[in-house]
């Protein structure tokens, strides 16, 4: 398959885990439920409608927390909003941990106030945070964004909104995300959930 302009063929790039890296493009649908039901705030499916992940929120906690759960019900990672920071900052931890030893990555807005979506992502071993390992650019208002590797023009995933009469009637947002070959799709899903929270959530 021809690679889109601005990308290169990578070796597998596991962030959450190697099992989430496929040698071919992966299309996922992220369905946000506006009316929060007991089965999760978000449901993530593949092209055939098979469940991949759910995202559940933890209410009444000091920190906003979201837990990414796989199709078998196992917690994959926990997203935690770090309060008392100038920039909106989220941390992702392995499983249901919030221990810094289990930190996978940190994502923060590049400016305190921003009109366009811009998110910088730092992997756990990038402690000085001088240069991001990934960046997200786009317009959340248009439900369109592109995720790049580092400061390069190499695209690792793209998101756009998909609307249908049914989704409007049921009060749901659906984001379609194309994850490029060898990119960790669990990591990409986590970034989209963080973006939604930063940009107003509900």
TrEMBL record:
Pfam families: LOR (PF04525)
Superkingdom of origin: Eukaryota
Protein family (similarity comment): Belongs to the LOR family.
Listed PANTHER family: OS07G0230700 PROTEIN, PTHR31087
Annotated protein name in UniProt: Protein LURP-one-related 15-like
Source species: Rhodamnia argentea
Source organism phylogeny: Eukaryota, Viridiplantae, Streptophyta, Embryophyta, Tracheophyta
Gene: LOC115749261
